[in-house]
Amino acid sequence: MTGRRTDQRSPNPFVAAAASALLPGVGQWIAGDRKKARRLFIIDVAVLLILLFFFHDRVSVLTAFVKPTSMALLMVVNIALLGYRVWAADDAYRSASTSGRSTSRVVGLTAVIIIGAFLLMPHVVFGYYDLVQYSLITTVFDGDEAADTTSTTASADSPEPGDEAAPTSSTTTTVVEEVPWDDLDRLNILLLGGDFGVGRTGVRTDTMITVSIDPKTGEAAMFQVPRNWTYSPLPDGMGIWDCNCYPELINELWIQGEQHPEAFPGPGEPSENAVKGVISEFLGIPIHYYALVNLDGFGDIIDAIGGVDMYVPEKIVDDEYPLLDGTVTRLVIEAGEQHMNGEQALAYARTRHADSDYYRMSRQRCVLEAAMEQTDPTSLILNFGKFADVIKNTTTTDIPLDLLPELVELLPSVDIDEVVSVRFIPPEYHLKYRDDGKPGRIANIDLVHEHVQLVIDDPELAKIQLDLQDSEECPTAPST
Questions:
Q1: How many domains, the chain?
Q2: Domain-embedded: residue 22
Q3: How far apart are CA 72 and CA 324, in angstroms?
Q4: Rounded CA gap, 159 and 47, in Å?
Q5: Among 11, 49, 207, 360, which residue's CB has the most CB atoms within a 10 Å radius?
Q6: Cβ distance 335 to 313 under 8 Å?
Q7: For the segment 234-255, what is each residue's pLDDT rounded down to a tens digit?
Q8: What confidence category does residue 470 fall into, taking pLDDT thresholds of 50, 70 and 90?
């Protein structure tokens, strides 16, 4: 006795095929082949359980989407599931067609188109996103395996301008564990905003924010260095200047790496070594990785996530706001709640003539926080191709590709609301002006090191002693 039975009312083959295109087995059940339907249902449940096992939460999904091998495997699975659904739809059609029920050609053609859409559309869409994501992670991130964690660590004593440099040490830490920051007290990643600009030679890193994370607890801090400090200490073995320091504005280091590669030896490109090495010495902590984003692409990123809502506490007027094409214009940003598109958010983050570099630093941090908190998943998905293109064209980093999954697993432990943020700005961190008459300030490096260590050792005490309770919070609309 077969598992097939024929009902008095003949099933429509196209209905059966469409049903199995949607969920294999349903069409066989409609056609009367209950035995085969049950087998297909078991396969459906098994596939679902396997997918749930591997993608049971958001972290596991994100982890899979930053692994090239996972992306390739998902493409294979996608194609296999398409083949399975095509076979199930065809089998259901054949099973229902044994009744001899006839269908007009127009109805049949329409049904084939609908069934084809059922079958192809989800797999084509998934395949598109899979390929875009694969291209994104393999283009932006370093494909070399991460066997070492190499960084330049600041010495306890930093040189004063004009004095002979105190000895420093260059430390290379080799970690044999799969995750190189398992044995680190802090993982430090330098985020750079590069303002290329028409008429400017090279990249000036006007935004320099070091994110420091405790891998065990998830405690995090942000250390922001302004662009106009001078006479910054250099790691041992770097530099070509008599002061044994970098005497010019700190935001020009990337350019110096390009112009004087011999001055910045190390594991990476000279510009990378220059910025990572000097910021490491400035803060007194190792810099493990960096990421540089071209600010003229920042606006496109904001547009790709649907814009950001910002509260502007006071009206901003900049009569000489520099546009990306090299011209200037009058910029006016009204006070109050504002929904900003990419161009407006970039202007809000870049303008400084209305106040100062230091207010701009706060605005930049607040725009970054708003972008992270307000990212609309729907807008991001719908604009993912554009978002990926912007990231590929505007981002440079030395974060190894094979460390992305571990980094993704680490980030959920970080509470953004509890991040301690410190800006090393005058007057508190001002030591003195330059002795040669050129514009620029010299930072109190010892005080910077002391406060960085305080934030790392005791974040809550640091908030009180450094008066960070309110001054570092982004402005919000007053409650009514």
A1: 2
A2: yes
A3: 39
A4: 63
A5: 207
A6: yes
A7: 999 999 998 889 999 999 999 9
A8: very low
